[in-house]
Amino acid sequence: MLSKTSSLTRMRACTAMLAVMLTTILTVAAFGQTGGQTGLNDSGATNDPTSKAATKAVAKSAADELAKTIEALEERIRQLEARLAKLDEPARPANDNTAKAAEVAEIKKEIVAIQDDAKKNEGVLKFFRDVEVSGIVDGYYSYNNNKVDMFTQGRAFDVRHNAFSLQLAKFTLNKANSKDDPLGFRVDLGLGETVDRIISGGDSGRNDGTKHILQAYASYVAPIGSGLTIDFGKFFTPVGAEVIETKDNFNYSRGWLFAFGPYYHAGLRAKYSVNDKVALSGFLFNGWDNLFENNISNNAGKTVGFQLGLTPSKKFALTQTYLAGPEASFASLPGDPEQDNWRHVADTVATIYVNDKLTLLGNFVFGSDGDNFGNRGKWSGGAAYFKYAFTNKLAFSPRFEVFNDKDGLRTGTAQTVKDITLTQEVKLVNNLITRFEYRRDFSNQKFFTNEAGIAKSNQNTFTFGVSYFFTNREP
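RESULT FIELD:
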């Protein structure tokens, strides 16, 4: 026989569990509905009145829905209490006892159904508690004074002239891990100019479908010391100061060092933090910008490397990266097996946080490479950036860059090319960024062309970019 006390206890536990889950669901829903209006300033506090009003309105609606749901559950419990009270009355004739047993079985069945639903909902909520769901939509309009699409003009992703273009739409699932919770993963799916122009370059002939998988890797934290993080799969390169996502750079366009460096790798990487000031990483990759191994069978060497990260204070950070492997173009051609077909790159990034408003960033790279005829050469470059935040919504970021491809192994022309970039950033709200940018590229050779096919030594572009990002994590 099911007693009244045990039944009420179980029902109240179910109600409490459902109330917690519903609160979480409605909170996430409220945040999602205000994703385009809610954000934090640099100090971590919301400051947009419209955003606050929208958030309160959605939160009130969510609270009202939650109240109605809980009220319905409480009414159902009251009904069950009444039925249980009748069942606890003094024993009646046998036929009444049979009816009572049937009713008890029905109540038990209903409780089991509620508990099953609670378990299912709990599994969904656990996934969203553990996994961050985020995304980016990034588009731009650009005008080139040479009036030509810049497919050979030294740009990475902002390659269209006089057109509105989608640079990148990206959707991400990311489960962070730690020594206490060692398993994690990340998957980035994307489309746009970023995918079509660069990310798919090394693999498009092998399997075009892979180009939309920007990153995909599994992660494990081995219980060694403070924790050794091991990642396996496809991930963005560790080289350089600039990254794929526009919002995480100072400027809208990527510089020459980014455009002619690696973009992604496939293989293994491992990172160990000695303490909060020193971290060391090791890499073993198939190569540069290829998911599939593209070295010939008798020379199928791998790219190896390391990275040292130093953060001696909150004001300064230094990262040194080195990669090397048999990736020079002529590695796949027949000939002298002793010829040097290794590609090397050493990359240094230094960041100085002068104060809350001013950040300085420097990047220097040195590399050596080969061409299809077995000729070797060197290339180097440097870039200086600074970002000054007038407010948490308004910032100005100039960049000056020099890229010396003296043997023409990276750009296809022996030249020294420079750029001056001026970027004005305006945050409409904290997760919607607009950037207005003027950039001048100029070379000591006539590397650029205009719409008539006439060679020129420079180009000027004017770009307006918009980058929106969202996440299911609370700000």
